[in-house]
Design goal:
The complex is a heterodimer of chains A (276) and B (186).
Chain A: H1 14-17, H2 20-36, H3 40-56, H4 61-85, H5 89-94, E1 99-101, E2 109-110, H6 111-126, H7 128-137, H8 140-149, H9 154-183, H10 194-225, H11 244-267
Antiparallel strand pairs in A: 1-2
Chain B: H1 11-30, E1 32-34, E2 41-43, H2 45-56, H3 58-75, H4 81-95, H5 98-101, H6 110-140, H7 144-176
Antiparallel strand pairs in B: 1-2
Helix pairs in contact in B: 1-2, 1-3, 2-3, 2-4, 2-7, 3-4, 4-6, 6-7
Chain lengths: 276, 186
């Protein structure tokens, strides 16, 4: 239960000094272009770049060990599922067929399939270092002010700030309720069967939800007393101005995105096809 | 002098979005119930999301779903945007009917339970069996049979989650409200 969400770790690197808005825009832009592109060279280049940035953010292996294992596990599972469901999908996509193993059966191994799955792997991992950098170098309060700066209404930005603020509180409440219900003798562990576990989930969820509804009333009254939402604009205590490094980062992001789009033209579509 | 604003989200909705998203995030992380079939969990967050959407409306429903799912995916490194978006749509669509269900009015009887469940089953199936896999094919170009099977499995499990947990929460909540029209002038 000790997994911390925004493992914000205040350090003194240039990535920590960037404004949250810059990091958010760069992350969104790169993750969207990486989502669309199927050019292995392009994806590999972004992956290498984000690994270099990762190094520069002074993030230690201990901080990301658990997450990395999770990601590896799910990626491998997904890659296997893709293969089991569609061993010939690469052939279908790339239009050629270079057989490595097998010939007539359902499970054949082709270069095209391997290449397609390599592309998928790159897509699964390409944004991971960026997301972790984003999580670990961005102060949550500053992040909310950045959302407002990039054009989201300040009320919604404030909701995001509240969500980040209350995750640890709701988490400890969840944990307390779970312990209390176990002390009363309800089985919530893996030993219980499906029906018992569903009931168990309800036994935690119902108190949690009603406690949270009370919390919503308390917090919103406090905000109302401080006249939240009265004006169209608000200022942010943690707000930060853009510096030269912010503009340079955004410029680099835009250039990478333009490169990605240019590659669509060069490759005649989203897929880079080395088999042709 | 700044202009005053009276439009937009109410303060209570702003707070509900924040805390709702925090709860969706936590339920996605800790509140999954394994069904016994490997890798298939009943995700209790959808029941909760449907409940909050019915209480606070479509905008709140969309943002709570989108934000909660996005934060959860972000900590795994790769937001799977198509599914994040679909979770938001699910919350938004359920939220569209909040005036009709009128849970605050303290009345959530058999008729409303039935129509809530018809609505949620249809929304879940359209969202997970049609929308999310189709977006996956368009955006991520994954094999169709894999994503549609994933979609069918999650559609069914999310409908169970919403049907059981969403209904229970709505009934209990409505019972805790004062019934509309329960006071009479003497």
């Amino acid at each position: 239960m000790s997994f911390q969400l925004f493992g914000f770790d205040d350090q003194d690197t240039w990535l920590h000094h960037l404004s949250g808005a810059t990091k958010l825009l760069a992350f969104l832009g790169l993750s969207i272009i990486a989502m669309i592109s199927y050019d292995a060279r392009f994806l590999a280049a972004i992956t290498i770049m984000s690994l270099i940035l990762f190094k520069q953010a002074h993030i230690t292996w201990r901080q990301i060990r658990l997450v990395t294992k999770f990601i590896l596990f799910f990626s491998i599972l997904n890659l296997l599922a893709v293969y089991v469901f569609s061993p010939e999908y690469g052939v279908h996509l790339y239009g050629t067929r270079h057989l490595i193993l097998g010939s007539t059966g359902y499970f054949t191994l082709t270069q095209e399939q391997l290449f397609y799955e390599l592309n998928l792997t790159l897509k699964y991992i390409v944004t991971v270092p960026l997301a972790l950098i984003f999580l670990m170098t961005t102060n949550p309060s500053e992040f909310a002010s950045s959302l407002n700066k990039v054009g989201l209404s300040y009320k919604v930005s404030y909701s995001v700030a509240l969500a980040l603020r209350y995750i640890p509180d709701v988490q400890s409440e969840y944990h307390q309720i779970s312990l209390a219900q176990q002390a009363r003798g309800y089985e919530l562990s893996r030993k219980a069967n499906l029906w018992q576990r569903l009931q168990g989930a309800g036994k935690i969820l119902i108190p949690l939800v009603f406690a949270s509804l009370d919390r919503i009333d308390t917090v919103s009254r406090a905000m109302e007393l401080r006249r939240f939402g009265r004006y169209r604009k608000r200022t942010w205590y943690m707000g930060r101005d853009f510096h030269a490094s912010d503009w340079l980062t955004l410029l680099a992001t835009v250039l990478i995105i333009i490169l990605g789009i240019a590659l669509f033209k060069v490759n005649d579509g989203r897929f880079w096809n080395p088999f042709r | 002098m700044q202009k005053q604003s009276h439009r937009g989200l109410s303060i209570r909705t702003v707070v509900a979005i924040g805390i709702g998203a925090a709860i969706v995030f936590l339920l996605k992380r800790f509140g999954s119930v394994p069904t016994g079939v490997p890798n298939t969990n009943i995700d209790t967050s959808y029941g909760f999301l449907a409940f909050f959407a019915s209480l606070f409306g479509p905008i709140a429903g969309f943002i709570i779903g989108f934000l909660g799912h996005m934060l959860n995916d972000l900590t795994y490194g790769t937001p799977w945007w198509t599914w994040v978006f679909t979770t938001g749509i699910f919350g938004g669509v359920i939220g569209l009917f909040w005036k009709r269900f009128d849970v605050e009015g303290g009345n959530f009887g058999v008729k409303k339970i039935v129509s809530f469940n018809v609505l949620q089953v249809i929304t879940n199936l359209v969202a997970w069996v049609l929308l999310a896999p189709t977006l996956d094919i368009l955006v991520y170009s994954e094999p169709a049979n894999k994503v549609y099977l994933q979609g069918i499995v999650s559609g069914i499990s999310n409908a169970i989650s919403t049907g059981v947990i969403g209904t229970i929460l709505l009934v209990i909540y409505a019972a805790s409200r004062t019934k509309r029209g329960s006071l009479k002038r003497e």
